[in-house]
Write a structure and sequence with these properties.
13-stranded antiparallel β-sheet; outer membrane lipoprotein receptor (LolB), chain A; 28% helix; alpha+beta; 2 domains; 283 residues
Length: 283
């Protein structure tokens, strides 16, 4: 029978023991590294969430400003397809719009043929309309901005967003982890038929989600919901589909969808003149 010297057997056992200890240490180090990586990832995620939360303004007016910026999307040009449903009738329009992302916008009707050529120019607090059949431009009073656009449930102010910060005082009505609701009450002497607006936005990016209009008796009479947000290069999230429902008895519905939209453009000043209102603006 073959025998092994005791010193040789003892040396192999020691090496095996050392290898086992090293393996245990390596496994422990790997486990510790995985745990450290998990803790680090959790810290980074929490830090990112806190940073995003910290980026949301605490002031109601600042929140409304951010929401309006998301609503406008800066300078833009786009084609809008609008469907107006009222009673048993459905009207469809194709519009071309140009805006500077501030206080000026030019919108022209392309279709249907019997409405083509009608145009609307918003310049600050002023609103001008052009009717080809009449052959001249008219200036509407500030109160006209709350009127229905082309007989729809969508007003000129719904498109521009200016009234949210120019006509109302803002206060935070509700705030959760994923959304904020701002109450907007008309300032004294404001030219608006509404007693309050309720504006809801997603957190933390303040993407506008819904705008509910209440009458002087606090009853909801109109609701605008915003869909299909598009994220721009500067981080803004701009809704590209508007749906307005008239909540009064016999009310209708209007859907406006932005197509072929280009954001971040800088239209020339000549696009926001009475001449452009009547003849259009190409650049």
């Amino acid at each position: 029978m073959t025998t092994f010297p005791l010193p040789l057997f003892g040396s192999s056992a020691a090496r095996i023991a050392r290898l086992r200890v090293a393996a245990v240490r390596t496994a422990a180090m790997r486990t510790a590294a995985v745990r450290a990586a998990a803790v680090l990832a959790a810290v980074l995620v929490a830090g990112g969430a806190l940073a995003q939360e910290a980026a949301v303004p605490a002031d109601a007016d600042a929140i409304v400003d951010r929401i309006v910026e998301n609503l406008r999307g800066g300078g833009q040009r786009a084609t809008i397809r609008m469907t107006v449903e009222r009673d048993d009738a459905t009207d469809r329009y194709v519009l071309e719009t140009i805006g500077d992302g501030d206080e000026r916008a030019l919108t022209r009707v392309v279709a249907p043929p019997n409405e083509a050529g009608r145009a609307f120019l918003v310049d600050g607090s002023e609103l001008f309309v052009y009717a080809p059949r009449v052959g001249r431009s008219l200036r509407l009073p500030p109160s006209g901005r709350s009127d229905g656009f082309l007989g729809s449930d969508l007003s000129y102010d719904d498109l521009a967003g200016d009234e949210l910060r120019d006509t109302y005082d803002a206060a935070i009505a509700e705030r959760t982890d994923d959304r904020v609701v701002v109450s907007l009450v008309p300032r004294a002497g404001a030219a608006t038929p509404y007693g309050e607006l309720r504006l809801t936005a997603r957190l933390p990016d303040l993407t506008p989600l819904e705008l509910t209009y209440l009458d002087q008796r606090d009853a909801p009479v109109k609701r605008l919901t915003l869909h299909d947000p598009r994220t721009l290069e500067d981080g803004r999230t701009v809704p590209t589909r508007f749906e307005v429902v008239d909540l009064t008895e016999g009310g209708g519905r209007t859907i406006a969808t932005w197509e072929d939209a280009t954001f971040g453009v800088e239209p020339p000043d000549r696009c926001f003149t009475l001449e452009a209102l009547e003849t259009g603006c190409r650049w």
